Amino acid sequence: MSRDVIKAEGLTKVFNNSLVAVDHINFSVKEGEIFGFLGPNGAGKTTTINMLITVLKPTEGTASVLGYDIVKQANEVRKVIGVVPQEYTADEDLTGYENIILCADLYGIPRDIAKKRAAELLELVELTRFKDKKVETYSGGMRRRLELACGLINRPKVLFLDEPTLGLDVQTRAATWDYIRRLKKEYGMTLFMTTHYLEEADALCDRIAIIDHGKIIVTGSPSELKDSLGGDIITISIKEDADVTPIIQSVENVKDVKKEDHNSYRVKAALGELTAPLIFEALRNEGYTVTKLSITEPTLNEVYLEYTGKTMRESEESRENFIAHRITLRRSRK
Q1: Do the Cβ atoms of 79 and 33 come closer than 8 Å?
Q2: What span, in angstroms and rounded, lies between the C-alpha atoms of 290 and 281?
Q3: Within a domain: residue 302?
Q4: Residues 149 and 257 grouped into a single domain
Q5: Which domain holds residue 100?
Q6: CA pair distance 214, 42, nearest whole angstrom
Q7: CA-CA distance, 35 to 190, in Å (whole number)?
Q8: Which of 76, 104, 294, 295 is positioned for an S-S bond with 109, CB 3.0–4.6 A?
């Protein structure tokens, strides 16, 4: 049975004695797995990573990486991890090769070993042809690949990736996914990544923790989370302004009905393709007109909606509105 490489218990971070960024979370990451933190911007993902990589000290709780306490044994933690931050950190005035060597120097890696590893890593991320070009000439995708190479220079046992494909186009994102898969398959590396891309979490992660407002809502593999919905999702709208929940609920195979607005419903049902026509017929027999009906198999977006009450897009928008409101208040006080 795989051991726990990362373990957090009651991990909490409060800023300015008021803003709870991470709220008493508990989770563990198994050796050799890709573990994902899925949530909107501002959910607490980056703050969690910054505590685990010893950049931030927790307000409460404990966490360990490979058995090393993140507070009491911070130096030991730093020696065994690699980090690919959300922001680009490479020096634009240096070449790609020089940036990797600089990272090796920071780890105290002997120069002859550093040169060999740099060549291997440039090959891994397909930047060998561009190794002597300044980073200022690199595209966004090339910079992201260079960040990945720099994060691997010390041959870490655990790699932390904070939003590894943020801002990349679809093709470059897919290529980055391939690099991440190779790290797990070929090197047996444990990877902890944050993302707000649902399809990315579904495609890459062995297990996912959905985090919202600093709290972990649910944890499981993508298939486990989707199976937890208990069936297909049927979305149905009627012309009339009436509550037809009892009618829909009475149809065979319907497991749950949620009224989303005055005439739209979200229905969980087994065998959606067979159940949807039965719902349509039941409503028609009662004199109601169906204006919209769709069936979808469970997705992580449906999972997110089920457990948080919002879609990922709505969560992003509400967070942006909250930040804008805070900025307006601050300006008004000046």
Answers
A1: no
A2: 10
A3: no
A4: no
A5: 4-225
A6: 8
A7: 8
A8: 104
Which residue type occupies 25? I
Q: How far, in Å, are 57, 61, 144 from residue 158 at the CA level?
A: 19, 21, 18
Burial annotation 31-51 (CB, 10 A radius, 16+ → b, else e) = bbbbbbbbbbebbbbbbbbbb
- Least Cα distance to 161 among 216, 120, 201, 108 occurs for 201
Q: Is there a domain that residue 77 lies in?
A: yes
Same domain, 43 and 72: yes
Cβ atoms within 10 A of the Cβ of 165, count? 22
Which pTM does this prediction carry?
A: 0.81
Domain boundary among 197, 225, 253: 225
Whether 249 and 277 share a structural domain:
yes
pLDDT 10s digits, 84-141: 998 899 999 999 999 999 999 999 999 999 999 999 999 989 999 999 999 999 998 8
Q: How many CB atoms lie within 10 A of CB 327?
A: 10
Residue 68 Cα distances to 84, 109, 263, angstroms: 20, 22, 55
| Helix/strand/coil for 194 | strand
Residue type, 204: L
Q: 317 in a domain, yes or no?
A: no
Contacts of 15 (CB under 8 A, 6+ apart): 21
Length of the chain: 334
